[in-house]
Fold this protein.
Amino acid sequence: MSKSADTRDTVDAEAVRWAYRLFLGREPESEDAVRHQVAGSATIDELRRGFLGSEEFQRKISGYARPSMIGTEAALEIEPVEDSARLQRLLDHIAQSWSHMGETDPHWSVLTNDGFHADRIDANRDLFYATANEDIRRFLATLARNGLALPKGARCLELGCGVGRITHRLSEHCGDVVGFDVSPAHLRIAREYLDAQHVENVELRQLRRIADLGDVEPIDVFFTAIVLQHNPPPVIAGILDQVFARLKPGGIAYFQVPTYEENYRFSVDAYLKARGSELDMEMHVLPQKDVLRIAARHGLQTLEILEHAIPELKVGHLSNYFLLRRPD
């Protein structure tokens, strides 16, 4: 089958059943599971990537997995930015891009599954929001693995709350949540969704300046996933610097960010010239040494660095989940 034909093929129940057999070596657990996969996969490629990224498949191939990095990789060339005006230019560009996506394809911009495009989201809305369950399960398991639990009435700051997908779940485990996003359109949808779910302990704020994060009252929890990666490295660093400063004694930071990409480099002038008026999704990295340097500056303990294993990552690419804590 040609690549073009492969990506055009639609997914039906029989394709899903064969995916179960080929990737997981078993029959589907139920017809509801089959329908769930059909609804969430617009193409055979979407279906394949979903199975490759599943926890069950990852466990099956754990003995054959190759490392993301082999240790001989070169240092990345990333220009630091100290000037606040230049940093603001970077954030303004990202805000413009995400505001555009929020107006045109908000749910797909959060999770790039073809079933979540604007013309299909009505049929798949429940499935879209249900995906947050896995994010929260991973978060709580990471805490438990490190002997931690959310304090009663925890105050949480979520960065990149988008349309409220994970925000709703965080609100069930925390006393109150402050959700930040750069896109007014995403925030508007998030507010409508949370109101419809009768969620009353979430405050939503637009992030206009990185310094806005410093205006939040001290927090018990910082949470963000698949968000920081869409910002240039100086913006990621600035965000972490502000948020780490707001953690209470005993407070935890749980976040994901890509930390290595072969041949990646960043300079402000080259970036702004290349990006110009492009208003699409970007992918960036912040090396582990920079994350840990910022954490050390704020006196945070590094409890765990977990590899973020997704099928899209290649050798020479690394993404990590971090769990940090401010000592009591």
Q: What stands out?
A: The radius of gyration is 20 Å. Residues 55 and 309 are 10 Å apart (CA to CA). Confidence is low (pLDDT under 50) at residues 1-8. The first helix runs from residue 3 to 8.
